[in-house]
Amino acid sequence: MNAISTHDRGANMRGGGRSTNPVDVHVGRRLRLQRTLVGLSQEKLGKAIGLTFQQVQKYEGGANRIGASRLFDLSRVLGVEVNSPAFSRHPAGSVFAAARNSRATTSHC
Questions:
Q1: CATH at residue 78
Q2: CA distances from 12 to 6, 15, 31 (A)
Q3: pLDDT of 46-92, one tens digit each?
Q4: Are 22 and 99 in contact (CB under 8 A)?
Q5: Which residue from 5, 29, 36, 97 has the highest number of Cβ atoms inside 10 Å of its Cβ?
Q6: Distance between CA 66 and CA 78 in Å, rounded?
Q7: Has residue 96 been placed in a domain?
């Protein structure tokens, strides 16, 4: 049996009404905050790592998940480390706790 749940598979499909994950939204908000703090536009940030400004918009809105290598590239351009408060602070505590709470309330068992 496949270890990926139906809910997880839906998260990787385009369209389909996928709801945003609170961790993706949080990381996107922190990305936007750090980008504005260093004075970069979405277009300039995108160009620095080979993306369009639309892709940066999707990341910042939490519509698209940021992969580990992309997060590393973004952090280098923004002058912060991936594990810095620029990406890790969450208003409700741990980002991981927020994700657990979200999964607990949306599980389809």
A1: 1.10.260.40
A2: 10, 9, 21
A3: 999 999 999 999 999 999 999 999 999 999 999 998 877 666 665 55
A4: yes
A5: 29
A6: 15
A7: yes
